[in-house]
Amino acid sequence: xxxxxxxxxxxxxxxxxxxxxxxxxxxxxxxxxxxxxxxxxxxxxxxxxxxxxxxxxxxxxxxxxxxxxxxxxxxxxxxxxxxxxxxxxxxxxxxxxxxxxxxxxxxxxxxxxxxxxxxxxxxxxxxxxxxxxxxxxxxxxxxxxxxxxxxxxxxxxxxxxxxxxxxxxxxxxxxxxxxxxxxxxxxxxxxxxxxxxxxxxxxxxxxxxxxxxxxxxxxxxxxxxxxxxxxxxxxxxxxxxxxxxxxxxxxxxxxxxxxxxxxxxxxxx
Length: 269
Prior knowledge:
39% of the residues lie in helices and 23% in strands.
């Protein structure tokens, strides 16, 4: 895909990191041709990524540092649909109440919500490292359900985490998934992540799913939850008629964000 000089640096950085992840070594000349920008622009982009420790300079280009694949994958994951995730997070604040204990999974959608919680009188139960770091920096009280660390999702999974989650009862759990269909429900490809999300949902009084539009119509390997187990679904675009009907049938409260506002579908209550 040919980009243009008008694309913001962040978008070019994502493209460069994606190519480095696939090829390990990228050349300035080749990047300039693939992205449709001047070589000087690519050099500045590569220099910025080198300063962040995401790339290493070599003659004529750059390479992915040893053992950096997981970090680069996380950067790319967090940057996908970033504006939509911010919109979902702002709408999710309507379901956060003073004095509540809220639980968040290790998804980047839930992380966007965590970043907005400074100043709220809440306690948070987290299963992800990035959420814990953000909460620690903002001064929001939290408990980290820690166990075996999963680098690809920067999450904690396994028996230790499950043991903690079986003993807690948050007011509201916020989670995301890799896909959603009426037939398969909310799905994810990683079994350990699915087990953690399942237990969070089972322990919670209210369950809120945060799903940008790219997740609709996709099915991953394992089901996290059937539609009827989720109380609220917040998304950034209207779902198809089939999905809307399925949500209404199972009593899911649908919230569709529109920029900084949100439109609630009360018919599904």
